[in-house]
Amino acid sequence: MNQFPGVIGRKLGMTQVFLGDGTVVPCTVVESKAMVVGKRTQAKDGYDALILGLGERKEKHTSRPLAGQFAKAGVAPRRVLRELRCSPEWAAGFEVGQAITLDRLFDVGQLVDVRGVSRGRGFSGVMTRHHFKGGRMTHGNHEYRRHGGSIGTRMTPGRVKLGMKMPGQHGNATVSVLSQEVVRVLPEEGLLLIRGGVPGPASGLVEVRGAVKRRGGKRA
After folding, report:
1. What is the pLDDT of residue 210?
2. With contact defined as beta carbons under 8 Å apart, do 34 and 7 qualify?
3. pLDDT at 5 over 50
């Protein structure tokens, strides 16, 4: 489980960054103005984590149990809540109600893992969903140009095997992009520029944490 320091934010879109040698780097802009609205401790909950809140939420749209938790913590209601596990030392460095500054979490050139929900594309065929080649366009082919072809066998075993790639729901799934480079950190604006694309549409919720497979994760 990834327990490197991280933050939640909104994907604003993509832009370009010009390096000193003239290289153009495509970047995804992530806006994060999250704050700590709660904590989990080993003594009370059996693990350590920070509960981050993002976006404002009207009190009339907040349920009474949730409003009571915000009131007990002494913070304003937040629209999005996410729980990020971390080390006890990292959690001890934050207080409830404290804003998360990006320059404390990330450095330029650091590698991060980004997780979000991909765009939903509804019911899609095999060419869109699984990148099938499709049938030939000519030479007697009739109404089978974008079909998947045979899906089973004959008498033995006489059924469609499990895991066969077929048309169905495409997208709208949690997707992680690993080891993406941090190009810019703008703590005053609450912006983080990450090299390449990240899952999800514009204004979609994303989670950014230190990379687990390569260098990039840092402890408190």
Report:
1. 93
2. yes
3. yes
d(Cα 75, Cα 89) in Å, to the nearest integer? 23
d(CA 23, CA 18): 6
pTM of the model: 0.85
- Which has the closest alpha carbon to 171: 114, 209, 113, 116? 116
In the chain, residues under CATH classification 2.40.30.10 are 1-32+102-120+171-220
* Mean pLDDT of the chain, nearest integer: 92
Q: CA-CA distances (angstroms) from residue 47 to 44, 79, 86, 87, 91?
A: 8, 24, 9, 9, 11
Give the residue among 215, 15, 212 at the shortest CA–CA distance from 115. 212
The share of the chain scoring above pLDDT 90, in percent, equals 80
Say yes or no to pLDDT of 103 above 50.
yes
CATH class of this structure's domain 1-32+102-120+171-220: mainly beta
Predicted local distance difference test score (pLDDT) of residue 170: 96
Taken in order 147, 149, 155, 160, the sign of the CA dihedral is: negative
Backbone angles phi, psi at 131, to 5 degrees: 60, 40
Which option is the CATH number for 35-99: 3.40.50.1010, 2.130.10.10, 3.40.630.30, 3.30.160.810?
3.30.160.810
